[in-house]
Structure formats: C-alpha cells, structure tokens
C-alpha cells in the first residue's frame, strides 16, 4: 500500500471514488431515517433522534477527508440541529422538520459536487547514509589532521579546501552532507557568513553547517545562528566531540520511520489516513477490529495510536482504557480522531484515557504534523527510559532483555545469533592520566563507532562502565569475529586529544554463539570468559569462547 507520490494521488482518488459510491448508497437510508424521525410519535422521536445524531456525526467526520467538504458541513448542521431538539426535550414542531428536509436536499446536492482536492505533497523523509561527505575549510594542520583522521575512521569522506569561494562552488555543484568551516581561517567572518547563507537559499533542505572558532562569546554565537550554523565548536577542538555531534545529526535522519497504529472501523477513512502518513515517511498499520488491539501492539510496536472515538463494538475511550490496563503500553500516546467538536465531551474522553484530540475533518498536513510531533516526543521519552545517558546505548537491563528475545527468536527460526563482550583496555589509566571527562569522551566515541559500524538490526548495550555487549542476529561466529576485530582496529586508530596531548586506546573482546544456550546469563558468561582470556593474553585482541573439553571417566 506504500505509494510513490504519483500513484499516491491515484490511490487517494480511488478511495474518494469508493467513498462517493458508498455515500450514494447511504443517502436513501439516511433519507428514510429522517422520515422515520419526522413521522415518529411523542414516545419514539427521541430514540429516532439519537440514531440520526450518530449517523450524521459519522458523516460529518469523514466526508471532508474525501473531497466532500460541503456534505460534511451540512451533515454537521443536521447533527447539531437534532442534538438541540433533543436537549429541548419537546416534540419538534413542523418548521423544524421542514428545515431538516431543506438541509437534507442541500446535502444531496453537495454529494453531487465533489471539490477538486489538492493532496498533501509532503515529501518522504530522505533515507540517509552514516558515511557522510564533508567539505572542510581549515588552515591549521594541528586541527585538520586529527579531525580528518577521526572522521575517516568513522567512514566519512572529507574534502579539504583552503578557499571558501571554492568550497561554496563545490557545494553548489554537488551538495555535501555537512560543511565544516574554521572561522579563524577567514579574514572577514561577516562576508563568509553572507556567502554561506547565500548558498543555503536555493536548497530545499539546508546543508548542515558547523563552525570551529576560538571565540566563545554570545555575539559570535548569535551571528553564527543567523547565518544558519547548527554546530559551534570552541577550540581546542576534540575531534570525538565533533564526531558525536555529526552522528546525532545523521542518525536523526536515518532513524526508523515512526509507526502509527490506526484504529478505525471505517476502512476507507483508515486507508486514507494511512496513505497520507506513509507519504510523509511514517509507517502506518490499520486495525478495524478493536478486539485485536493487543496483537496489533505486539506485532507493530507503534509510536502512536490514532483512535476513532465512535466505534460500534467498543468506543475509543473504552479501548484506550483497555490499552492502559497493561503497563507495557503506558508510554504509547493515544490520539483520538473524532468529529466531536464539543470541548467538554472531548475532555470527558481524555479524562478516561488518551493524550490528545484531533477533530475531523482534518487536513492531510495537519494530521501529519500532529502525529509526527507526538511520535517524535514519544520516541525521545522511550529512549530516555531505556538508553544510557552518556552513550545513548541500551542500558544493562534492556540489552539483557533484548538478548533474551533474540535468543528465543533465533531458536524459533533456527538462526544464528552471535554475542560479544567488549572492554576498553587499561581504562583506569585513561581516567587517572587525562581525567574523568576525557574518559567519558573515549567511552562515547567507542559507542559512536559501534553504532556507526554495526548493522541497524544489531543490538548494542552499555553493559557496565567501559564494557559493551553486542548482539548480532543472523550472524555466524566467524563473521562476528571478523566484525569485532574490525571494530577493534578502527577503535585503535581514533586519536583522542586532552590538554594538547594526543593518545590512543585499545579494546579487548570475547565472542560467543548465542545458539549454545537460550539462557541469557549463560551466554553472557561465555562472552565474559572469552573477554577475560583476551585480557590475560595481553589485551587488544578478540578471542572466541571455547567450551571446555569434557573429561572422560575411565
Ligand atoms: N570516565 C569514566 N570512567 C568510568 C566510567 N565507568 C567506569 N569507569 C572507570 O573505568 C575503570 C575500569 O577499570 P578496571 O575495571 O580496573 O579496568 P581497566 O583499567 O580498564 O583495565 P583492564 O580492563 O584490565 O584492561 C574504573 O576506574 C572506573 O572508575 C564512566 O562512565 N566514565
């Protein structure tokens, strides 16, 4: 169902046609219901009115989405009018009936005049790479050399320039992923900023711009922000800090698409929302049967639930309360989507459960923006809850939990999963000689390297202080050893700078197969034993766990 923008328009137009056909079948039924209401006696009219309110409420919420805004407006008027009659508690007079019939004729006319709809042209998010092309302007080899080395170790491609005009010309020809400019290399920073912001103008997506400077004053920061700078590094520069910032920038873009679970008994409406969200780069799954909510949650792990309020079997607020019965899903925001405009009724739904209320009909862009903002916030919160603050990697308990799930999955699918324990060598010395802050930078650089070099499906956790646990699903042992060895070599190449001194670190690792046991603690213990051997054998090496040879009794 995922559409390219061209066939997205086609698919949305097809949904509109289906909706129109459905409406044309529905109009005689609505007319009949209206007639029943008008002819109802003093005892039954309330019951008939309640049915009318429900039907026109639903219509008011959906019609606008399918290019029938006129139908939606008149349906809303009918709903409001009948609701007002209900609240007056008296049998409607003849004039009221005439007015309702008049509204109905208007609605029929509007159904024959669908308005041309301009579909949202929101672009899908870019699929980005972790190896960026970087244009660098820097005259000082003491800065550019370690920086170039670090960026290269992380797989980036760096093109150096000595002249800003040449750098800008190259960026115009082929926009890079990032531009880094050392402001101290320029005679006139105001003119340089003008040139750089000029470069950004024609770009659909501005090129991320970082600057290095020896100036640490507010006026310089402000000048930089006004020129579109998004990263300002005061010298002396630590290349690892720059790389960490770079990785945050790139990983924000290459992050998994946000997942939205749409629960709506109206399939056409749900399909329309799903298409619009998918076109904006989000993933959407539809659930029309509320009874399947927990299967949907477990299968899809949504960042957001988009929930219809009026469903026949179970109302939206009831379903939201059901979801909240399980702690596991407490963090997933629930957004109601309903044509209910009465704020008191909206509040009543929110008090039961749920986090937000969107009112139908809603424009495609408003839907995307509201969902995107909620999903982003939910993802950030989930990360804070499960990720380590220094490295952004899974915390001890969470990596163990994920390892457990991977071991189960591997056993079920008869696949290999490899597990590795990594530890930085003589790390105590790093802290003692260069200070705890520098030690932290070494830890976070290794975390960045792991994130950058491993596959998206691999799991990385900070197991302890300077100890990391890697879970590599669908990976044979020999391949795992090769990958971990490459990580070891890459880490040893990273230059760290502290108080003008450059130093390097190494790591040791133990690798084992997760298929040896389904017990998390046993697998971790095997990886740990192999790591211990690597340390004992002189460090800076990777050792594969060898199960003890059984001693045969005579
Ligand atoms: N800077 C910093 N240091 C940490 C952190 N967590 C643990 N450490 C330090 O890491 C050091 C680990 O030292 P040890 O376990 O003795 O091992 P080592 O010095 O790395 O030596 P080997 O592992 O035997 O090569 C201790 O000094 C801890 O204080 C952290 O988050 N930041």
Automatic annotation (TrEMBL):
Q: Which reaction does it catalyse?
A: 2 GTP = 3',3'-c-di-GMP + 2 diphosphate
GO molecular function: any one? diguanylate cyclase activity
Domain of life per record: Bacteria
Q: Which UniProt keywords apply?
A: Nucleotidyltransferase, Phosphoprotein, Transferase, Two-component regulatory system
**Which positions carry Phosphohistidine?**
57
| Transit peptide found in the keyword field | no
Q: Where is the GGDEF domain?
A: 415-547
One Pfam annotation reads GGDEF
Record domain HPt: where: 12-117
Q: What protein am I looking at?
A: diguanylate cyclase
Q: Which organism is it from?
A: Rheinheimera tilapiae
The taxonomic lineage of its organism, from the top, reads: Bacteria, Pseudomonadati, Pseudomonadota, Gammaproteobacteria, Chromatiales
